[in-house]
Amino acid sequence: MILDAHSHVHDPLDAHLSALDDAGVDRTVLFPTRAHPERATDLDFLRSEMGVLERALAGGSGDDGFALAMRELDEALAAHPDRFLGFGSVPLGRPDAETAARVEREVIGRGLYGIGELTPPPNQAALVEPVLRAADDHAGLPVVVHGFAPTTAADLRTLAQLAARYPKVPLVISQLAGPHWMSAIELARAIPNLHLELSTANIVFAVRLAIHELPTRTLFGSDAPYGDPVVARTTVERVTSPGEVRDRVLGGNLAELLGLG
C-alpha cells in the first residue's frame, strides 16, 4: 500500500484525488489548513493565500480560522474515508488543561489518527510540549511538526529534546527539516521516536541519505498542494532500489506508525 504521509485539504477535493491517482497513492494523511494556494488563479491571489500561511507560521491564527479549517477537514474525511487519514491540529500557547481538552475533543473525539501539522513560531518549538504531553496520555498519538522555514536549527534541537522526554510519542518532523536536513538526520539517529517526513526536499541526495540512515523512520510525503505526489514518489524511487526499504518508505513505515492493518 502506498501511503502519502503529508497533505492538506484541497479546494476542490477532486484535484487532490486526481493527483493521488496519478501517483498511485492509496491513502494520504490529511491535515487541516487555513491557506489554500491551490485556489489561486493569478499572482495577486497567490500572494493573498500565502499571506494566510505566513501568518499561521508566525503563530497568528485565531479560533475562527482554526474552526473553519477543522470543518473543511471533517467534510473531506466524510466524503472520502477510504482515501484520507485525518490528523487534527490544536492551537499552541494555550494552558495545559485547555490543550489536553482540545486534543480529547478535536483529535480523539473525531476519531483521527494523530495531531498535526503543528506550526510553532520560529524559536518557540517548546510550545509543542503540552501537545506531546497530551499525546502521551493517549497511548502515544503521533505528532507532526512543521519542519521547513521558519523552523530554525534551534527549534530542531528543542524538538529532539522534547521527543526524548516523551519516548512513547512518535514525533514526525515534516519537509525533512528544510535547510537543516543534515542536523535533523543526526538528531533522529540518536532518538528512536523521532521520524522524518521527506516532502518538498529540493536536494535529491538529502532524501537518499535520510533513507539510508533511517530506513524504518523516513516517510514518503508530498505536502500537497505545495508539493506533488507524483514528483515526491518519483524522488523516493530514484534514490532507492525495489525491495523492502522502498516499500517501507512508501507506506510500510507509516502503516506501522498509525497501526493500519
Automatic annotation (TrEMBL):
Domain Amidohydrolase-related: 14-260
Pfam families associated with the record: Amidohydro_2 (PF04909)
Designated name of the protein: Amidohydrolase family protein
Cited SUPFAM superfamilies: Metallo-dependent hydrolases (SSF51556)
Organism, scientific name: Streptomyces prunicolor
